[in-house]
Amino acid sequence: MSRRRVVGTLFLVVFVDLLGFGILIPVIPLYAKFFGANEFVGSLLIATYSAFQFVGAPLLGRLSDERGRRPVLLLSLLGSVIAWTLFGLAGELGSLVGAANGLVVLFAARALAGAMGGNIATANAYIADITPPEDRARGLGILGAAFGLGFVFGPAISGLVSSGVALSLFRDVLPAAVPVSEFTMPSFTAAALSAANLALAFVVLPEPRRRSTSTGATAASRLRRLYEAVRSPAIGSLVVAFFVASFAFSAFESQFIFLTNDRLGYGTAENAVLLTYIGVLIAVVQGGLIGPLTERFGEYRLALAGAAIQVVALAAVPFSLSWTFVPSVGPVESGAVALAAVSTPLAFGNALTNVSLNALVSLNADADEQGGAFGLTQSAGSLARTFGPAGAGLLYVAVAYWSPFVVAGLLFVPVLVLLGGVAREQVRATPE
After folding, report:
1. What CA dihedral angle connects 148, 220, 393 and 249, to 10 degrees?
2. How far, in Å, CA of 371 to CA of 56, rounded?
3. CA terminus-to-terminus distance, the chain
4. Which of 67, 166, 297, 355 would you call most buried, defined as having the most Cβ atoms within 10 angstroms of its Cβ?
5. Cα separation of 99 and 84, whole Å?
């Protein structure tokens, strides 16, 4: 198989893997509430994936060094099939020892899925094995595109299979033993896609000839490298800014569905539509607009603009639901229209900040440390997505529904301060 076909196959494998993850995004918070969890516990369920991914990525990467890339990718895909199947059967499995234990099943399944989701380290190593250094950035960019597309199409599929029409069809054609609900069918769909992905990878994905010798370090050493990066004069402020920005936006993401469910009564299907809209906006900016904007304004100014936009937009999210001056559009009530309107600049600002900060960290790292720079932002993002939802859920329960969004917006003020403190000579990509 040619290198281009192998890269294309790997793109498809990663895309379908992330598609399964994206399908569950609108489901997880409300599934947790179904088993009696409050917003804080539901937020911990959301954070569990990132926590186990942070630990699992270096373990799977090291295992792929020892046993090969292909078997580890196959193992991780099999783990995803098991995890999402358990997710769909949480009610049935929990009832064996008491209904409340369905929540325990959700946590166990989410942890397994996160650990298997650490296969990104192996996928990156696979790309490094099959591409020469001069083409490696392009190959890694292709995997990044697979991530973005998975987040766009996943919620859309979730909304489709959890709609009333689809659920009625599933009840008619599936055996009575299969539990059918707005929570289970997205879970089983994710499991089915993962199973098809496993079959595809097993048949067409070869074991690459080893070019790289190591995929990374342990979780402990990743924390040490993050600490050392924070102390670095060259990229310390940028890494901290990336962590805070990721922390704040993950707080918004984790509480968004709780907000729409509590204030608008939205379920899985309605939330899937809103999340798909936001995902499409982010993808359009990252895929089509960020290039021309960067050429004109530079990464530094775009990062500042994105952070400034999010200060206002994030804080406005919870209050937009009561903007009676916004008209309804057909069957969509005014609160949802206002929320979509606020989400438009929010998605634009997030795309600007995320891409620009990633680029600035890379541009200010040494030429021979580009892989390490990518690993730093990935590690910082994983940690932020672990602690951000937990903190936001606590605010939602202990203070008020609006508090995590306002705090998330205010967190972008220190991001602006950190960026303002970056020495001008460090911002090499900004045009004068």
Report:
1. -40
2. 19
3. 46
4. 355
5. 19
CA distance 181 to 160: 13
Sign of the alpha-carbon dihedral angle for 148, 151, 157, 163? negative
pTM score, whole prediction: 0.88
- With tokens 């099943």, the residue in question is 105
State the DSSP string of 287-322. IIIHHHHHHHHHHHHHHHHHHHHHHHHHHHHHHHTT
% pLDDT > 70, the chain:
87
| Tokens representing residue 125 in the block | 């190593």
Q: Tokens 């989410």 — which residue?
A: 110
Distances (CA, A) of 353 to 266, 296, 332, 415: 29, 16, 30, 10
Residues 235-245 pLDDT 10s: 788 889 999 99
The pLDDT tens digits of the residues spanning 127-185 come to 777 766 655 556 666 666 677 788 889 999 999 999 999 999 999 999 998 999 999 99
- Beta pairing partners, 329: 332
Instruction: Name the token pair of 268.
Output: 């899985």
- In the chain, count of helices (H) and strands (E)? 17, 0
pLDDT, tens digit (0-9, with 9 covering 90-100), for 284-310: 887 778 888 888 888 889 999 999 999
Can you list the positions of beta strands (E) in 326-412? none
